[in-house]
Amino acid sequence: MWTDFQLFPEKASSIAAGVDNLYFFLVAVGVFFSTLIFATIFVFAIKYRRRRPDEIPRPIHGSTLLEIFWSVTPGMIAMMMFGWGAYVYFRNYHPPEGAMEVYVVGKQWMWKLQHPEGHREINELHVPAGRPVKLTMTTEDVIHSFFVPAFRVKRDVVPGMYTSMWFQANKPGKYHLFCAEYCGNQHSGMIGWVYVMDPTDYENWLSGTSTGETMVQAGERLFQRLGCHTCHMQDASGRGPALEGVFGSTVLLETGQKVVADEAYLRESVLRPGAKVAAGYKIQMPTFQGQISEEGLLQVVAYIKSLAPRKRVETQQ
Ligand code: CUA
Questions:
Q1: In terms of Cα–Cα distance, which of 190, 186, 172 is closest to 123?
Q2: Is the CB–ligand 1 distance for residue 192 below 6 Å?
Q3: Average pLDDT, the chain
Q4: Do residues 126 and 87 both lie within one domain?
Q5: From the CA of 126, how far away is ligand 1's center (Å)?
Q6: Higher model confidence: residue 284 or residue 145?
Q7: Ligand 1 centroid – CA 111 distance (Å)
Q8: Which of 123, 177, 211, 316 lies deepest, with the highest CB count within 10 Å?
Q9: Same domain, yes or no, for 179 and 245?
Q10: Do 147 and 188 belong to one domain?
Q11: Phi, psi for residue 233 in degrees, rounded to 5
């Protein structure tokens, strides 16, 4: 029964050891002080017990030195936990440049994943070892949470927005994927596997299961089908702004505010065009809420992202 039982999941990502070390430090500090406090309670209970009914204890006077010692020492240990924890958190929070992108859509009760090359998977994710992977995630219905214990990563997947997280798997193998947020009666069945492959095996897997259409191509097709191109024309002569180079740029809005055009901004502009209107344009765009799935939306976002560098180079010429 206990043959599969592991106290700790495998350490299979670049951050796993760092997270575990912090965890062990917290446990060690907790165990040390719990032991010290309980041992002291017992020792003092015996040492200072009342020996005669008429015994009057000697009054205790304060010791400034002792007070300072037991205030400053725990204070320093707490600051160390804070500093160390912040370091691990921030390092795990920002995906490194050039990370491979994977797009995730949660749904009661499955995980749907898309690779930029066009591969789609359900409850399975194939990634190469030794390469950072960034997940951009959303859900069609309720809150889920993408959790891979062996990588020590977990992040909520929230309806109506994109969340992201990253990991770099360093050991080929097969690892559990869980949903870590109660999401309905099949929540416990919302599980899957992450397959970490040798980079060459991964390349073979990619070419062997090719669908023939990348996410950018699928996004472009949707862009045409929904008629986006009739207003968002490349030379900015349309009724909507040109989208070349928009991703990652700072957009001036009608209100005078400035926003960075990230994935969330693109998403919002498709679903709620009136929310943040670019300066110089009127709200003429209809909402596409209900006409496009979350997966389709991610494809359109991937397409608009792909328009950035190419056009920027051209305008500089
Ligand atoms: Cu999805 Cu729990």
A1: 190
A2: no
A3: 85
A4: no
A5: 20
A6: 145
A7: 9
A8: 177
A9: no
A10: yes
A11: -95, 150
Query: Does residue 6 register a pLDDT over 70?
Result: yes
What percent of the chain clears pLDDT 70, i.e. is strictly above it?
94
Cβ of 179 less than 6 Å from ligand 1: yes
By 3-state DSSP, what share of the chain in percent is helix, strand and coil, each rounded to 5? 40, 20, 40
> pLDDT digits over 25-43, tens only?
999 999 999 999 999 999 9
Token representation of residue 287: 């909402």
How far does residue 180's CA lie from ligand 1's centre (Å)?
Answer: 6
pLDDT tens-place string over residues 143-162: 999 999 999 999 999 998 88
pTM: 0.76
Pocket lining: 197 vs ligand 1, CB cutoff 6 Å: no
Confidence of residue 316 (pLDDT cuts 50, 70, 90): very low
What range defines the domain where residue 231 resides? 225-306
Greatest mean pLDDT among 3-17, 55-69, 176-190, 195-209 lies in: 176-190
Rounded distance from Cα 53 to ligand 1 centre (Å): 63
Is any atom of ligand 1 closer than 6 Å to the C-beta of 183?
A: yes
CA-182 nearest atom, ligand 1: 2
How many Å from the N-terminal Cα to the C-terminal Cα in the chain?
68
Per-residue b/e over 121-146, b at no fewer than 16 CB within 10 Å?
A: beeebbbbbebbbbbbbbbeebebbb
- For residue 181, being part of any structural domain is answered with yes
Is residue 315 over pLDDT 50? no
C-alpha span between 28 and 35 (Å, rounded): 11
Task: Report whether residue 139 contacts ligand 1, using a CB cutoff of 6 Å.
Answer: no
Ligand 1 centre distance from Cα of residue 6 (Å): 23
Q: 198 and 130 in one domain? A: yes
